[in-house]
Amino acid sequence: MCGIVGFAAGENVTDDIFAGLLSLEYRGYDSAGIAVIRDGRIECEKVTGRVSKLKEAAKGLFGKVGIGHTRWATHGAATKANAHPHLSYDGRFALVHNGIIENSTELKNELAGLGIEFKSETDSEVIVQLIAKNYLGDPVKALDAAVRRLTGSFAVALICTDFPTSVFAAKKGSPLIAGVGKASAMLASDILALSPHADKICRLEDGELLEMRKNGFGFYKEGKPIEKEFEEIKMKNIKTDKGQFEHFMLKEIFDQPEVAKSIIEKRIKNDEVVFPELDPEIFSDIKHISIIACGSAYNAGIAGKYILKELMRLPVTVSLASEYRYATPLPLEGTLTVFISQSGETADTIAAAERVRFLRGRSVSIVNVKDSTLTRLSDYTLYTEAGPEVAVATTKGYTAQVMTLCLLGIWAKRNERSVLFEATEAIKSIPEIMLRLLGTKDKAEELAKRIRKETSVYFIGRNIDYAVALEASLKLKEISYIHSEAYAAGELKHGSIALIEEGTKVFALSLIPELTDKTISSIREVKTRGACVFAVCREEDGATAEVSDEVIPLPVVHPIVGAVCEVIPFQLLAYFTAKYRGADIDKPRNLAKSVTVE
Ligand code: F6R
Fold this sequence. Notes:
alpha/beta; 8-stranded antiparallel sheet
Protein backbone atom coordinates (compact mmCIF):
# COMPACT_ATOMS: atom_id res chain seq x y z
CA MET A 1 0.00 0.00 0.00
CA CYS A 2 2.12 2.89 1.31
CA GLY A 3 1.53 6.62 1.23
CA ILE A 4 3.71 9.13 -0.58
CA VAL A 5 4.01 12.89 -0.22
CA GLY A 6 6.06 15.55 -2.02
CA PHE A 7 6.35 19.28 -1.42
CA ALA A 8 8.02 22.20 -3.21
CA ALA A 9 7.88 25.53 -1.37
CA GLY A 10 9.78 28.72 -0.57
CA GLU A 11 10.65 27.49 2.90
CA ASN A 12 11.49 24.30 4.79
CA VAL A 13 9.05 21.55 3.78
CA THR A 14 9.99 18.91 6.36
CA ASP A 15 7.12 19.65 8.77
CA ASP A 16 4.55 19.66 5.97
CA ILE A 17 5.82 16.33 4.68
CA PHE A 18 5.74 14.90 8.19
CA ALA A 19 2.14 16.11 8.72
CA GLY A 20 1.17 14.70 5.33
CA LEU A 21 2.64 11.32 6.25
CA LEU A 22 0.76 11.29 9.54
CA SER A 23 -2.51 11.67 7.65
CA LEU A 24 -1.52 8.87 5.27
CA GLU A 25 -0.47 6.48 8.01
CA TYR A 26 -3.68 4.51 7.48
CA ARG A 27 -2.06 3.26 4.24
CA GLY A 28 0.76 1.51 6.07
CA TYR A 29 2.72 2.03 9.24
CA ASP A 30 5.72 -0.24 9.44
CA SER A 31 8.41 2.32 8.56
CA ALA A 32 8.67 5.86 7.24
CA GLY A 33 11.15 8.34 5.83
CA ILE A 34 11.73 11.81 4.42
CA ALA A 35 14.35 13.10 1.96
CA VAL A 36 15.07 16.75 1.12
CA ILE A 37 17.66 18.60 -0.94
CA ARG A 38 19.98 20.87 1.03
CA ASP A 39 22.93 22.67 -0.50
CA GLY A 40 22.85 20.47 -3.58
CA ARG A 41 22.87 17.21 -1.62
CA ILE A 42 20.16 14.77 -0.62
CA GLU A 43 19.56 14.42 3.10
CA CYS A 44 17.42 11.52 4.18
CA GLU A 45 16.10 10.15 7.48
CA LYS A 46 14.18 6.94 7.99
CA VAL A 47 12.70 5.09 10.94
CA THR A 48 11.13 1.70 11.47
CA GLY A 49 7.70 1.74 13.10
CA ARG A 50 5.26 4.60 13.26
CA VAL A 51 5.47 7.93 11.43
CA SER A 52 5.49 9.73 14.80
CA LYS A 53 9.05 8.45 15.34
CA LEU A 54 10.15 10.47 12.31
CA LYS A 55 9.48 13.77 14.10
CA GLU A 56 12.58 13.42 16.22
CA ALA A 57 14.67 11.71 13.53
CA ALA A 58 13.89 14.32 10.86
CA LYS A 59 14.18 17.43 13.01
CA GLY A 60 17.58 18.31 11.55
CA LEU A 61 16.36 18.09 7.94
CA PHE A 62 16.00 21.33 6.00
CA GLY A 63 15.01 21.65 2.38
CA LYS A 64 12.67 23.58 0.11
CA VAL A 65 11.73 20.46 -1.80
CA GLY A 66 11.28 17.01 -0.36
CA ILE A 67 9.50 13.69 -0.48
CA GLY A 68 8.18 11.34 2.20
CA HIS A 69 6.82 7.84 2.55
CA THR A 70 4.95 5.65 5.00
CA ARG A 71 5.31 1.97 4.23
CA TRP A 72 3.29 -1.23 4.22
CA ALA A 73 5.90 -3.81 3.34
CA THR A 74 5.47 -5.99 0.27
CA HIS A 75 9.11 -6.77 -0.61
CA GLY A 76 11.49 -7.07 2.31
CA ALA A 77 10.88 -6.77 6.05
CA ALA A 78 10.17 -3.52 7.89
CA THR A 79 13.79 -2.44 8.30
CA LYS A 80 15.48 0.93 7.94
CA ALA A 81 17.27 -0.25 4.79
CA ASN A 82 13.94 -1.21 3.19
CA ALA A 83 12.20 2.00 4.28
CA HIS A 84 11.79 4.70 1.61
CA PRO A 85 13.09 7.08 0.28
CA HIS A 86 15.62 5.03 -1.69
CA LEU A 87 18.72 6.73 -3.02
CA SER A 88 20.35 6.09 -6.40
CA TYR A 89 23.87 4.63 -6.54
CA ASP A 90 25.30 8.03 -7.53
CA GLY A 91 23.50 9.94 -4.75
CA ARG A 92 21.76 12.17 -7.30
CA PHE A 93 18.18 10.92 -6.85
CA ALA A 94 15.88 9.95 -4.00
CA LEU A 95 12.59 8.20 -4.70
CA VAL A 96 9.41 7.09 -2.90
CA HIS A 97 7.07 4.48 -4.36
CA ASN A 98 3.57 3.19 -3.72
CA GLY A 99 2.65 0.02 -5.62
CA ILE A 100 4.31 -3.21 -6.68
CA ILE A 101 6.87 -3.72 -9.42
CA GLU A 102 6.26 -7.20 -10.77
CA ASN A 103 9.40 -7.44 -12.92
CA SER A 104 11.72 -6.10 -10.22
CA THR A 105 13.81 -9.30 -9.98
CA GLU A 106 14.59 -9.24 -13.69
CA LEU A 107 15.45 -5.52 -13.59
CA LYS A 108 17.51 -5.94 -10.44
CA ASN A 109 19.56 -8.71 -12.05
CA GLU A 110 20.14 -6.56 -15.11
CA LEU A 111 21.27 -3.55 -13.04
CA ALA A 112 23.38 -5.69 -10.71
CA GLY A 113 25.07 -7.06 -13.85
CA LEU A 114 26.11 -3.46 -14.62
CA GLY A 115 27.76 -3.23 -11.22
CA ILE A 116 24.98 -1.36 -9.41
CA GLU A 117 24.85 -2.31 -5.76
CA PHE A 118 21.46 -2.56 -4.10
CA LYS A 119 21.04 -1.42 -0.53
CA SER A 120 17.54 -2.83 0.10
CA GLU A 121 15.42 -5.89 -0.64
CA THR A 122 12.62 -3.77 -2.06
CA ASP A 123 11.16 -3.79 -5.54
CA SER A 124 11.11 0.03 -5.37
CA GLU A 125 14.86 0.54 -5.33
CA VAL A 126 15.13 -0.73 -8.92
CA ILE A 127 13.16 2.31 -10.08
CA VAL A 128 15.60 4.85 -8.69
CA GLN A 129 18.60 2.89 -9.97
CA LEU A 130 17.02 2.65 -13.44
CA ILE A 131 16.41 6.39 -13.43
CA ALA A 132 20.02 7.11 -12.46
CA LYS A 133 21.23 4.77 -15.20
CA ASN A 134 19.00 6.46 -17.84
CA TYR A 135 19.85 10.00 -16.77
CA LEU A 136 21.36 12.32 -19.38
CA GLY A 137 20.50 15.63 -17.75
CA ASP A 138 16.68 15.55 -18.02
CA PRO A 139 14.95 13.89 -15.03
CA VAL A 140 11.53 13.77 -16.79
CA LYS A 141 13.05 11.82 -19.66
CA ALA A 142 14.96 9.51 -17.31
CA LEU A 143 11.83 8.91 -15.23
CA ASP A 144 9.75 8.28 -18.35
CA ALA A 145 12.29 5.80 -19.74
CA ALA A 146 12.46 4.00 -16.39
CA VAL A 147 8.71 3.67 -15.81
CA ARG A 148 8.18 2.38 -19.33
CA ARG A 149 10.20 -0.66 -18.31
CA LEU A 150 8.10 -1.40 -15.23
CA THR A 151 5.27 -3.87 -15.02
CA GLY A 152 2.95 -3.64 -12.04
CA SER A 153 1.63 -0.54 -10.35
CA PHE A 154 3.28 2.61 -9.16
CA ALA A 155 2.96 6.16 -7.99
CA VAL A 156 6.46 7.55 -7.54
CA ALA A 157 7.89 10.88 -6.44
CA LEU A 158 11.48 11.78 -7.12
CA ILE A 159 13.96 14.52 -6.25
CA CYS A 160 17.20 15.21 -8.10
CA THR A 161 20.17 17.22 -6.83
CA ASP A 162 20.63 18.88 -10.26
CA PHE A 163 17.11 20.37 -9.99
CA PRO A 164 16.92 21.49 -6.36
CA THR A 165 13.57 23.28 -6.73
CA SER A 166 11.61 20.47 -8.40
CA VAL A 167 9.80 17.28 -7.48
CA PHE A 168 9.11 14.78 -10.28
CA ALA A 169 6.40 12.14 -10.29
CA ALA A 170 4.80 9.40 -12.38
CA LYS A 171 1.75 7.22 -11.99
CA LYS A 172 0.26 3.95 -13.18
CA GLY A 173 -2.32 2.03 -11.18
CA SER A 174 -1.70 3.70 -7.80
CA PRO A 175 -3.33 6.99 -6.83
CA LEU A 176 -1.49 10.31 -7.13
CA ILE A 177 -2.95 13.77 -6.66
CA ALA A 178 -1.20 17.10 -7.20
CA GLY A 179 -2.23 20.16 -5.22
CA VAL A 180 -1.52 23.86 -5.33
CA GLY A 181 -1.73 26.19 -2.34
CA LYS A 182 -0.80 29.81 -1.58
CA ALA A 183 2.88 29.19 -1.09
CA SER A 184 3.56 25.65 -2.17
CA ALA A 185 2.97 22.89 -4.65
CA MET A 186 2.45 19.39 -3.41
CA LEU A 187 1.51 15.84 -4.32
CA ALA A 188 0.28 12.87 -2.33
CA SER A 189 -1.43 9.50 -2.54
CA ASP A 190 -4.56 10.91 -0.95
CA ILE A 191 -6.33 14.22 -0.68
CA LEU A 192 -6.12 13.95 3.14
CA ALA A 193 -2.45 14.91 2.99
CA LEU A 194 -3.14 17.87 0.70
CA SER A 195 -6.28 19.32 2.22
CA PRO A 196 -4.62 21.50 4.89
CA HIS A 197 -2.55 23.35 2.24
CA ALA A 198 -4.15 22.98 -1.18
CA ASP A 199 -6.75 25.26 -2.70
CA LYS A 200 -6.93 23.30 -5.93
CA ILE A 201 -6.12 19.74 -6.88
CA CYS A 202 -5.51 17.73 -10.02
CA ARG A 203 -5.58 13.93 -10.25
CA LEU A 204 -2.95 12.28 -12.37
CA GLU A 205 -4.08 9.58 -14.78
CA ASP A 206 -2.16 6.45 -15.59
CA GLY A 207 0.81 7.13 -17.87
CA GLU A 208 1.16 10.77 -16.80
CA LEU A 209 4.29 12.38 -15.37
CA LEU A 210 4.84 15.72 -13.73
CA GLU A 211 7.48 18.18 -12.71
CA MET A 212 6.37 20.38 -9.83
CA ARG A 213 7.93 23.59 -8.55
CA LYS A 214 6.61 25.88 -5.85
CA ASN A 215 4.83 28.02 -8.43
CA GLY A 216 4.10 25.73 -11.31
CA PHE A 217 3.47 22.31 -12.77
CA GLY A 218 4.49 20.68 -16.01
CA PHE A 219 2.51 17.57 -17.01
CA TYR A 220 3.69 15.03 -19.59
CA LYS A 221 2.31 11.99 -21.34
CA GLU A 222 4.06 9.75 -23.86
CA GLY A 223 7.04 12.05 -23.88
CA LYS A 224 5.04 15.23 -24.68
CA PRO A 225 3.80 18.10 -22.51
CA ILE A 226 0.05 18.03 -21.84
CA GLU A 227 -2.42 20.49 -20.29
CA LYS A 228 -4.32 19.50 -17.17
CA GLU A 229 -7.01 21.33 -15.27
CA PHE A 230 -6.95 21.95 -11.53
CA GLU A 231 -10.27 21.91 -9.66
CA GLU A 232 -11.32 23.52 -6.37
CA ILE A 233 -10.73 21.16 -3.46
CA LYS A 234 -14.07 19.92 -2.13
CA MET A 235 -12.85 18.42 1.13
CA LYS A 236 -10.99 21.23 2.86
CA ASN A 237 -9.22 20.56 6.16
CA ILE A 238 -10.75 17.22 6.86
CA LYS A 239 -10.64 16.95 10.64
CA THR A 240 -10.54 13.66 12.44
CA ASP A 241 -10.32 13.37 16.19
CA LYS A 242 -11.30 10.80 18.77
CA GLY A 243 -13.30 13.14 20.97
CA GLN A 244 -13.84 11.60 24.39
CA PHE A 245 -13.16 8.08 23.14
CA GLU A 246 -10.03 6.11 23.88
CA HIS A 247 -9.72 4.83 20.32
CA PHE A 248 -11.00 5.82 16.89
CA MET A 249 -12.62 2.40 16.56
CA LEU A 250 -14.79 2.94 19.63
CA LYS A 251 -15.69 6.43 18.45
CA GLU A 252 -16.63 5.10 15.04
CA ILE A 253 -18.76 2.33 16.56
CA PHE A 254 -20.60 5.02 18.53
CA ASP A 255 -20.87 7.26 15.43
CA GLN A 256 -23.17 4.72 13.78
CA PRO A 257 -26.58 6.05 14.87
CA GLU A 258 -25.63 9.51 13.58
CA VAL A 259 -24.34 8.08 10.30
CA ALA A 260 -27.59 6.12 9.92
CA LYS A 261 -29.56 9.32 10.56
CA SER A 262 -27.68 11.22 7.88
CA ILE A 263 -28.20 8.39 5.41
CA ILE A 264 -31.93 8.48 6.15
CA GLU A 265 -32.01 12.26 5.75
CA LYS A 266 -30.35 11.97 2.38
CA ARG A 267 -32.16 8.91 1.08
CA ILE A 268 -35.72 9.11 2.42
CA LYS A 269 -37.82 12.08 1.31
CA ASN A 270 -41.52 12.13 2.13
CA ASP A 271 -41.38 8.45 3.00
CA GLU A 272 -39.91 7.59 -0.39
CA VAL A 273 -36.43 6.28 -1.01
CA VAL A 274 -34.54 8.51 -3.44
CA PHE A 275 -31.41 7.94 -5.50
CA PRO A 276 -31.27 11.02 -7.74
CA GLU A 277 -27.82 9.97 -8.98
CA LEU A 278 -29.27 6.85 -10.66
CA ASP A 279 -30.98 6.46 -14.00
CA PRO A 280 -34.60 5.68 -12.94
CA GLU A 281 -34.67 2.84 -15.49
CA ILE A 282 -31.43 1.24 -14.38
CA PHE A 283 -33.10 -1.94 -13.11
CA SER A 284 -35.63 -2.27 -15.93
CA ASP A 285 -33.84 -5.03 -17.86
CA ILE A 286 -31.67 -6.38 -15.04
CA LYS A 287 -31.89 -10.12 -14.43
CA HIS A 288 -28.93 -10.58 -12.12
CA ILE A 289 -27.10 -8.48 -9.56
CA SER A 290 -23.41 -9.18 -9.13
CA ILE A 291 -21.80 -7.67 -6.04
CA ILE A 292 -18.00 -7.40 -5.97
CA ALA A 293 -15.88 -6.33 -3.00
CA CYS A 294 -13.13 -7.31 -0.55
CA GLY A 295 -12.98 -7.99 3.20
CA SER A 296 -15.69 -6.36 5.26
CA ALA A 297 -17.16 -4.77 2.15
CA TYR A 298 -17.57 -8.32 0.79
CA ASN A 299 -19.30 -9.27 4.06
CA ALA A 300 -21.57 -6.25 3.59
CA GLY A 301 -22.32 -7.61 0.13
CA ILE A 302 -23.29 -11.00 1.62
CA ALA A 303 -25.62 -9.30 4.13
CA GLY A 304 -27.08 -7.19 1.32
CA LYS A 305 -27.54 -10.25 -0.89
CA TYR A 306 -30.13 -11.76 1.46
CA ILE A 307 -32.10 -8.51 1.54
CA LEU A 308 -31.85 -7.75 -2.18
CA LYS A 309 -32.94 -11.28 -3.11
CA GLU A 310 -35.93 -11.00 -0.84
CA LEU A 311 -36.94 -7.55 -2.05
CA MET A 312 -36.15 -7.91 -5.72
CA ARG A 313 -36.67 -11.62 -6.31
CA LEU A 314 -33.59 -11.66 -8.49
CA PRO A 315 -30.49 -13.81 -8.33
CA VAL A 316 -27.75 -11.96 -6.46
CA THR A 317 -24.17 -13.23 -6.44
CA VAL A 318 -21.31 -11.88 -4.33
CA SER A 319 -17.70 -12.24 -5.50
CA LEU A 320 -14.39 -11.46 -3.89
CA ALA A 321 -12.77 -8.89 -6.15
CA SER A 322 -9.44 -10.71 -6.01
CA GLU A 323 -11.12 -13.83 -7.44
CA TYR A 324 -13.41 -12.04 -9.87
CA ARG A 325 -10.58 -10.23 -11.59
CA TYR A 326 -9.00 -13.48 -12.81
CA ALA A 327 -12.13 -15.59 -13.32
CA THR A 328 -13.32 -16.51 -16.82
CA PRO A 329 -15.19 -13.44 -18.08
CA LEU A 330 -18.86 -14.07 -18.78
CA PRO A 331 -21.17 -11.79 -20.79
CA LEU A 332 -22.65 -9.08 -18.60
CA GLU A 333 -25.88 -8.51 -20.48
CA GLY A 334 -28.74 -8.22 -18.00
CA THR A 335 -26.29 -7.94 -15.09
CA LEU A 336 -25.91 -4.93 -12.84
CA THR A 337 -22.55 -5.04 -11.09
CA VAL A 338 -22.39 -3.36 -7.69
CA PHE A 339 -18.94 -2.59 -6.30
CA ILE A 340 -18.64 -1.88 -2.60
CA SER A 341 -15.61 -0.12 -1.14
CA GLN A 342 -15.12 2.21 1.80
CA SER A 343 -11.91 3.68 0.42
CA GLY A 344 -12.69 3.43 -3.28
CA GLU A 345 -8.99 2.66 -3.72
CA THR A 346 -8.80 -1.10 -3.11
CA ALA A 347 -6.63 -2.45 -5.91
CA ASP A 348 -8.54 -5.71 -6.42
CA THR A 349 -11.91 -3.95 -6.54
CA ILE A 350 -10.52 -1.39 -8.97
CA ALA A 351 -9.16 -4.14 -11.21
CA ALA A 352 -12.58 -5.85 -11.14
CA ALA A 353 -14.22 -2.52 -12.05
CA GLU A 354 -11.80 -2.07 -14.95
CA ARG A 355 -12.72 -5.51 -16.17
CA VAL A 356 -16.46 -4.85 -15.96
CA ARG A 357 -15.90 -1.62 -17.84
CA PHE A 358 -13.90 -3.41 -20.50
CA LEU A 359 -16.75 -5.92 -20.87
CA ARG A 360 -19.16 -2.97 -21.18
CA GLY A 361 -21.10 -4.04 -18.11
CA ARG A 362 -23.36 -1.62 -16.26
CA SER A 363 -22.11 -0.74 -12.79
CA VAL A 364 -22.86 1.11 -9.57
CA SER A 365 -20.29 1.75 -6.86
CA ILE A 366 -21.10 2.12 -3.20
CA VAL A 367 -18.20 4.16 -1.86
CA ASN A 368 -17.40 6.27 1.18
CA VAL A 369 -14.41 8.36 0.11
CA LYS A 370 -15.43 11.16 -2.23
CA ASP A 371 -13.90 11.23 -5.69
CA SER A 372 -11.86 8.09 -5.08
CA THR A 373 -10.64 6.03 -8.03
CA LEU A 374 -13.56 3.59 -8.03
CA THR A 375 -16.03 6.43 -8.50
CA ARG A 376 -14.44 7.16 -11.87
CA LEU A 377 -14.65 3.57 -13.07
CA SER A 378 -18.35 2.90 -12.53
CA ASP A 379 -21.39 4.35 -14.26
CA TYR A 380 -22.94 5.56 -11.01
CA THR A 381 -21.62 6.24 -7.52
CA LEU A 382 -23.66 6.07 -4.34
CA TYR A 383 -21.80 7.65 -1.44
CA THR A 384 -22.33 6.00 1.93
CA GLU A 385 -21.89 9.26 3.88
CA ALA A 386 -20.19 7.52 6.80
CA GLY A 387 -17.66 10.35 7.22
CA PRO A 388 -13.92 9.76 7.55
CA GLU A 389 -13.13 6.36 9.03
CA VAL A 390 -9.74 6.32 10.72
CA ALA A 391 -9.56 2.99 12.55
CA VAL A 392 -8.19 0.37 10.21
CA ALA A 393 -10.98 -2.07 11.11
CA THR A 394 -14.13 -0.75 9.50
CA THR A 395 -17.30 -0.37 11.59
CA LYS A 396 -19.45 2.56 10.53
CA GLY A 397 -18.21 2.11 6.95
CA TYR A 398 -19.59 -1.45 6.95
CA THR A 399 -23.02 -0.65 8.42
CA ALA A 400 -23.38 2.29 6.01
CA GLN A 401 -22.63 -0.07 3.11
CA VAL A 402 -25.27 -2.60 4.20
CA MET A 403 -27.79 0.19 4.74
CA THR A 404 -27.13 1.66 1.28
CA LEU A 405 -27.56 -1.76 -0.34
CA CYS A 406 -30.89 -2.24 1.45
CA LEU A 407 -32.03 1.22 0.36
CA LEU A 408 -31.04 0.41 -3.20
CA GLY A 409 -33.24 -2.70 -3.09
CA ILE A 410 -36.18 -0.70 -1.73
CA TRP A 411 -35.68 1.97 -4.39
CA ALA A 412 -35.62 -0.67 -7.12
CA LYS A 413 -39.07 -1.80 -5.97
CA ARG A 414 -40.39 1.72 -5.41
CA ASN A 415 -43.50 1.00 -7.43
CA GLU A 416 -44.56 -1.88 -5.22
CA ARG A 417 -46.17 -0.05 -2.34
CA SER A 418 -46.69 -3.05 -0.05
CA VAL A 419 -42.98 -3.99 0.02
CA LEU A 420 -42.03 -0.40 0.32
CA PHE A 421 -43.87 0.76 3.38
CA GLU A 422 -42.63 -1.91 5.77
CA ALA A 423 -39.05 -1.80 4.50
CA THR A 424 -38.84 1.99 4.58
CA GLU A 425 -40.21 2.06 8.12
CA ALA A 426 -37.60 -0.53 9.07
CA ILE A 427 -34.82 1.68 7.69
CA LYS A 428 -36.17 4.64 9.65
CA SER A 429 -35.92 2.67 12.89
CA ILE A 430 -32.21 1.90 12.42
CA PRO A 431 -30.70 4.83 14.40
CA GLU A 432 -32.89 4.03 17.39
CA ILE A 433 -32.08 0.31 17.27
CA MET A 434 -28.38 1.10 16.90
CA LEU A 435 -28.54 3.20 20.05
CA ARG A 436 -30.15 0.29 21.89
CA LEU A 437 -27.52 -2.13 20.63
CA LEU A 438 -24.75 0.19 21.78
CA GLY A 439 -26.26 -0.51 25.19
CA THR A 440 -24.83 -4.04 24.93
CA LYS A 441 -21.41 -2.50 25.60
CA ASP A 442 -21.09 -3.81 29.17
CA LYS A 443 -22.17 -7.29 28.21
CA ALA A 444 -19.76 -7.28 25.25
CA GLU A 445 -16.98 -6.18 27.60
CA GLU A 446 -17.81 -8.96 30.04
CA LEU A 447 -17.75 -11.57 27.26
CA ALA A 448 -14.50 -10.09 25.94
CA LYS A 449 -12.91 -10.80 29.31
CA ARG A 450 -14.11 -14.39 29.03
CA ILE A 451 -12.67 -15.00 25.57
CA ARG A 452 -9.50 -12.95 25.77
CA LYS A 453 -7.28 -15.95 26.45
CA GLU A 454 -8.85 -18.21 23.82
CA THR A 455 -6.84 -19.37 20.83
CA SER A 456 -9.86 -20.09 18.61
CA VAL A 457 -13.44 -18.83 18.63
CA TYR A 458 -16.31 -19.72 16.30
CA PHE A 459 -19.36 -17.86 15.06
CA ILE A 460 -22.39 -19.64 13.64
CA GLY A 461 -25.62 -18.40 12.09
CA ARG A 462 -27.98 -18.94 9.20
CA ASN A 463 -29.07 -16.58 6.43
CA ILE A 464 -28.51 -12.93 7.50
CA ASP A 465 -27.16 -14.19 10.83
CA TYR A 466 -24.49 -16.04 8.85
CA ALA A 467 -23.55 -12.88 6.94
CA VAL A 468 -23.21 -11.01 10.23
CA ALA A 469 -21.22 -13.93 11.68
CA LEU A 470 -18.69 -13.49 8.86
CA GLU A 471 -18.17 -9.86 9.77
CA ALA A 472 -18.16 -10.57 13.53
CA SER A 473 -15.42 -13.12 13.01
CA LEU A 474 -13.32 -10.88 10.77
CA LYS A 475 -13.59 -8.02 13.26
CA LEU A 476 -12.44 -10.20 16.14
CA LYS A 477 -9.49 -11.81 14.39
CA GLU A 478 -8.14 -8.68 12.73
CA ILE A 479 -7.83 -6.61 15.87
CA SER A 480 -7.46 -9.14 18.71
CA TYR A 481 -5.37 -11.69 16.74
CA ILE A 482 -7.50 -14.54 18.14
CA HIS A 483 -8.12 -17.11 15.46
CA SER A 484 -11.82 -17.12 14.60
CA GLU A 485 -14.04 -18.59 11.92
CA ALA A 486 -17.63 -18.11 10.91
CA TYR A 487 -19.68 -21.02 9.68
CA ALA A 488 -23.14 -21.34 8.27
CA ALA A 489 -24.69 -23.14 11.23
CA GLY A 490 -26.05 -25.98 9.12
CA GLU A 491 -22.69 -26.54 7.43
CA LEU A 492 -20.75 -27.09 10.65
CA LYS A 493 -21.57 -30.80 10.79
CA HIS A 494 -19.93 -31.35 7.39
CA GLY A 495 -16.43 -31.26 8.81
CA SER A 496 -15.71 -28.19 10.91
CA ILE A 497 -17.50 -29.57 13.97
CA ALA A 498 -14.38 -31.72 14.43
CA LEU A 499 -12.77 -28.56 15.86
CA ILE A 500 -15.20 -28.31 18.77
CA GLU A 501 -13.89 -29.65 22.07
CA GLU A 502 -14.48 -29.15 25.78
CA GLY A 503 -14.70 -25.42 26.50
CA THR A 504 -14.56 -24.15 22.86
CA LYS A 505 -16.29 -20.78 22.71
CA VAL A 506 -19.01 -20.53 20.07
CA PHE A 507 -21.10 -17.44 19.36
CA ALA A 508 -24.49 -18.38 17.93
CA LEU A 509 -26.37 -15.65 16.05
CA SER A 510 -30.09 -16.21 15.87
CA LEU A 511 -32.37 -13.29 15.07
CA ILE A 512 -34.56 -14.89 12.43
CA PRO A 513 -37.72 -16.39 13.98
CA GLU A 514 -38.29 -18.92 11.16
CA LEU A 515 -34.80 -20.35 11.63
CA THR A 516 -34.63 -20.36 15.43
CA ASP A 517 -35.33 -24.07 15.78
CA LYS A 518 -32.71 -24.91 13.19
CA THR A 519 -30.06 -22.81 14.94
CA ILE A 520 -31.03 -24.37 18.27
CA SER A 521 -30.24 -27.77 16.73
CA SER A 522 -26.81 -26.47 15.71
CA ILE A 523 -26.26 -25.09 19.22
CA ARG A 524 -27.16 -28.49 20.70
CA GLU A 525 -24.71 -30.19 18.34
CA VAL A 526 -21.79 -28.09 19.55
CA LYS A 527 -22.88 -28.15 23.20
CA THR A 528 -22.97 -31.94 23.09
CA ARG A 529 -19.30 -31.79 22.12
CA GLY A 530 -18.39 -29.55 25.04
CA ALA A 531 -18.73 -26.04 23.52
CA CYS A 532 -19.62 -23.04 25.63
CA VAL A 533 -22.25 -21.11 23.64
CA PHE A 534 -22.91 -17.39 23.80
CA ALA A 535 -26.08 -16.64 21.86
CA VAL A 536 -27.25 -13.39 20.37
CA CYS A 537 -30.99 -13.84 19.94
CA ARG A 538 -34.35 -12.07 20.16
CA GLU A 539 -35.17 -11.00 23.70
CA GLU A 540 -38.37 -13.07 23.55
CA ASP A 541 -36.53 -16.19 22.40
CA GLY A 542 -36.49 -18.28 25.60
CA ALA A 543 -35.75 -21.50 23.71
CA THR A 544 -32.34 -20.30 22.48
CA ALA A 545 -31.56 -18.86 25.91
CA GLU A 546 -32.31 -22.21 27.48
CA VAL A 547 -29.78 -24.14 25.42
CA SER A 548 -27.05 -21.47 25.62
CA ASP A 549 -24.58 -20.62 28.36
CA GLU A 550 -25.01 -16.85 27.99
CA VAL A 551 -27.32 -14.64 25.99
CA ILE A 552 -27.11 -11.14 24.60
CA PRO A 553 -30.79 -10.38 24.03
CA LEU A 554 -31.59 -8.08 21.11
CA PRO A 555 -34.88 -6.43 20.21
CA VAL A 556 -37.17 -8.09 17.69
CA VAL A 557 -36.43 -6.35 14.39
CA HIS A 558 -37.18 -6.42 10.68
CA PRO A 559 -34.56 -8.44 8.69
CA ILE A 560 -33.23 -5.21 7.16
CA VAL A 561 -32.56 -3.82 10.61
CA GLY A 562 -30.93 -7.08 11.64
CA ALA A 563 -28.69 -7.06 8.56
CA VAL A 564 -27.47 -3.56 9.39
CA CYS A 565 -27.40 -3.54 13.20
CA GLU A 566 -26.77 -7.05 14.51
CA VAL A 567 -23.05 -6.61 14.04
CA ILE A 568 -22.82 -3.89 16.70
CA PRO A 569 -22.45 -6.15 19.79
CA PHE A 570 -19.72 -8.00 17.88
CA GLN A 571 -17.88 -4.81 16.96
CA LEU A 572 -17.87 -4.05 20.70
CA LEU A 573 -16.80 -7.60 21.53
CA ALA A 574 -13.86 -7.35 19.12
CA TYR A 575 -12.92 -3.93 20.48
CA PHE A 576 -12.87 -4.99 24.14
CA THR A 577 -11.16 -8.30 23.42
CA ALA A 578 -8.37 -6.47 21.60
CA LYS A 579 -8.18 -3.98 24.43
CA TYR A 580 -7.83 -6.68 27.10
CA ARG A 581 -5.15 -8.36 25.03
CA GLY A 582 -3.22 -5.10 24.81
CA ALA A 583 -3.42 -4.99 21.00
CA ASP A 584 -3.01 -1.86 18.93
CA ILE A 585 -6.70 -1.40 18.20
CA ASP A 586 -6.68 1.37 15.62
CA LYS A 587 -3.64 0.09 13.76
CA PRO A 588 -3.61 -3.70 13.93
CA ARG A 589 -0.45 -5.50 12.91
CA ASN A 590 0.16 -6.31 9.23
CA LEU A 591 -2.85 -4.30 8.03
CA ALA A 592 -3.51 -0.98 6.37
CA LYS A 593 -6.70 0.94 5.86
CA SER A 594 -6.61 1.03 2.13
CA VAL A 595 -5.21 -1.97 0.27
CA THR A 596 -3.87 -0.39 -2.89
CA VAL A 597 -1.70 -3.34 -3.89
CA GLU A 598 -2.73 -6.68 -5.28
C1 F6R B 1 -11.78 -4.97 7.72
C2 F6R B 1 -11.56 -4.03 6.64
C3 F6R B 1 -11.15 -4.59 5.33
C4 F6R B 1 -11.78 -3.78 4.19
C5 F6R B 1 -11.24 -4.27 2.84
C6 F6R B 1 -11.88 -3.52 1.69
O1 F6R B 1 -12.16 -4.29 8.88
O2 F6R B 1 -11.67 -2.84 6.80
O3 F6R B 1 -11.47 -5.93 5.21
O4 F6R B 1 -13.16 -3.92 4.25
O5 F6R B 1 -9.86 -4.12 2.79
O6 F6R B 1 -11.64 -2.16 1.81
P1 F6R B 1 -12.50 -1.11 1.02
O7 F6R B 1 -13.88 -1.15 1.60
O8 F6R B 1 -11.81 0.20 1.26
O9 F6R B 1 -12.49 -1.53 -0.41
